[in-house]
Specification:
mainly alpha; two-stranded antiparallel ribbon; 4 helices; 2 strands; actin-binding; ARPC3; Actin-related protein 2/3 complex subunit 3; cytoskeleton; ARPC3_sf
Length: about 130
């Protein structure tokens, strides 16, 4: 199976650093547009195939966004492997969701080589 590359890049896509602010189907208002095209659904569908690629060709900013989300999913899976019950897994997932995660440009972020640091404080908050 070939690697999945995103087709969600539009000319009016908002860029944050060198990643794309892609649409997310949600009840909440955020920086990404609310549309029928859903990034999370695509990432969840293709994450199984894309994690096995040692080399992944980055074609555009949306591919960087997919890598970022895939990385986050992998971090969630690492936490969930240690859980013995559903309630413990829910607590771990909630804790991971509210913790301050490293973003591109910060020391310790493992993928700094392929991501640009946010240009200003507003981009930093959005990321």
């Amino acid at each position: 199976m070939p690697a999945y590359h995103s087709s969600l890049m539009d000319p009016d896509t908002k860029l944050i650093g060198n990643t794309a602010g892609l649409p997310v189907r949600s009840q909440f208002i955020g920086p990404a547009p609310r549309e029928t095209k859903d990034t999370d659904t695509k990432v969840n569908y293709y994450v199984k195939a894309n994690v096995f690629f040692k080399n992944y060709e980055i074609r555009n900013e949306t591919d960087r966004t997919l890598i970022y989300i895939t990385f986050y999913i992998s971090e969630c899976q690492k936490k969930l492997q240690k859980c013995n019950s559903k309630s413990q897994a829910e607590k771990e997932t909630y804790t991971l969701g509210i913790t301050n995660v490293l973003i591109p440009g910060e020391p310790g972020f493992p993928l700094n080589a392929i991501y640009a640091k946010p240009a200003n404080r507003q981009e930093d908050e959005v990321m």
